[in-house]
Amino acid sequence: MTSPSAANHADDTSPARSDADAERVFEQSVGSGAPDAPRRVVLLGNPNTGKTSLFNRLCGVRHKTSNFPGTTQESRVGAPRGLPEGSELIDLPGIYSLELEQSEAEICRSVLAGELALKGESLAEPDAIVVVADATNLSRSLMLVGEATRRGLPMVVAINLVDQARKRGIHADEKVLADRLGVGVVVCSARTGEGVDTLCETLATPRIPRESPPGTEEGLSDWADELYAQMAAGTAPPLPDTLTDRLDRAFTHPMLGVLTFVSVMTGLFWVIFKLAAYPMNWIDMLFGHLGGWLSGVLPAGAVHDLLIDGVLAGVGSTLIFVPQICILFLLISLLEDTGYLARAAFVIDKVLRPFGLSGHAFVPFLSSHACAIPGIIAARGVPDRRDRLATILAAPFMSCTARIPVYVLLTGLLFPESPGMQALAFSGCYVLGVFAGVVSAMIARRTILPGKSRAMVMELPSYRAPSMWNALLTARNRGVLFLQNAGTAILAITMVLWWLNAYPIVEPPAQAVELRERANGHMANEEGGEEGATSEELLARADILEAKHASRYSYLGRLGATVEPIFAPLGYDRQLTIGVLASFAAREVFVSTMAVQTAGTDEGNGFLKSLAVAKRDDGKTLIFTAATSWSLLIYYVLAMQCLPTLVVTAKEAGHWKWAVLQLGWMCGLAYVFSGAVFQVMKVVG
Amino acid sequence: MGIPMNELSRGRSATVLGLTAQGAFRNRLLDLGLVPGTSVERVMTSPAGDPVCYRIRGAMIALRSSDAACVRVQD
Fold it and tell me: From the candidates A460, A462, A463, A464, which should be mutated to test the interface with B, based on the most B CB atoms within 10 A?
């Protein structure tokens, strides 16, 4: 591009010539002889050809992810290097053929025809296609190249993974292809960066292919075979990929294969479970400090409460999901790059099949044991739509980390003297969750999502060294997308729940007022009152009373009292009902809510002991009887109590009805089973 | 004539004779290059016995046995 000053200068000296230039440029852009640099370029290729890595090489971080309208299929659009400002490169979904009746192929066809564009983009035929071919598997890639030539659009062929091909002794002459089709053909490797600069230059001059294969499937296959033979003529036959063969023998060995699977998956889980705990703690601490700091700066009052307990806490509880999501997708990207993820699905497929699920569902389920939100997002890796929906519906049954405090509390109350029984009941909860999940998936697949899954055609790509850069980009994208898609809704829900819990502000109870007065009196004459209570103790007791009172008369507390009859068959009183309702923000909130409500009933004996003897409103009956505790435990395993998860389900499944179904099904199931357990235990004693 | 591809024994190669599948699935198999005359090799089996991985045109493709049964091959 010439600088503006230079262009102005030319205008000044010879206006006539500059007009002529303008005409010529205009003619060029309408004429077919030498088209301008393309504005909209699409990236088309088979799965596992490194298309995404190539996109990353061409666009780097200058891209955004969005959906095709009316679908959950997402795609990325970026600004490619080598093309003028304002040009865009669209990464289409990976497909085996343009002619398939599957959603990805349909999307590709519509985009090529100019009938579909990403949300926020204008409808227009692309100016050029870049077909990404796999150098290690050229004969099949050429079939897609052949299909692309039939579109009559200017194109460029990028033969990717050339470093891999070379290692395996596969050589093919790209000039043969370039001569036959009359289009630019670039040999490159997105992994090493080789040829990427040449590709950028070639992008600017795509050409309409001068040849395309005959219309039939056999004709296409013969055309590709013949072309490949011509390209490979005179080169030595390829070496077998001995590393892949040797690794595969180990990874699919009846014993070693299962062992590898278990170790890799345990490692994956351990890392999301343990490693994510650090950034999650930092976020917690950071928001704690921010709250403390703001609290000191702002005057007490409604604005103070809204900003600190509402907004700041809400933002914190949304951000807290980000570390697990980023870490999970970093690992999934690395595992996928190496080629192992496909093997893992291959190994576990048969185990999940009786439940109407495919091997791809394993990683979402495993991740859901850390948190259902990254688990549900990971269900994007399940290729069949019905399988994916069943996986999303079942994922929140897996016992997530938020349930752990509740399990610990309830098993502690049930078996106070026996750590062994506690552990057994604890493990039982996990088993029950998995079982309920896969059975629910099976029921869903037989009723609302009937039909055979799309045949599982799973390519097991050659083993490759993973790219950390790609993994980091993926992790970043997932984190950003989560915040964009679900973040605002989760924040809003958290704030509404906070408001329900904190308002209306009620007058402190008379008892608390009296305690405060006595404490003040103490300070005046340091004599030490009855029971030896100091002023601090009196104030602490007043605080507890006030918190209990506020909790009881908040909107949530009143709601709890209203819906108490609904939970009565499960054995829950007013206080437990409030605890269950408060859990909708996050399940672990149950523990703190119960602590607030029952605090002060029996001081000095520890939290668990005070809960164990806490009484209902009648002042006689225990809140946590054995029957109630079992009923609660079952309820917390099965019920959908996490509104943030519902937001993500709605986003990922593509419609709110799936979130409503998930909520209804899980809570219904929990209600029936907890009720049954409570009633049976009450009768049995 | 021929046998279904899932009955191919481990490590053996065979030539595709034709497909018994219909519709979208047939197209999907064709797009993998499973056209008459293509050579296929049974490479490995999942520890659970199914799916099975075949080498088709240089790519490793795993198919469930019930799906692979739709491909007739000449042993």
Answer: A460
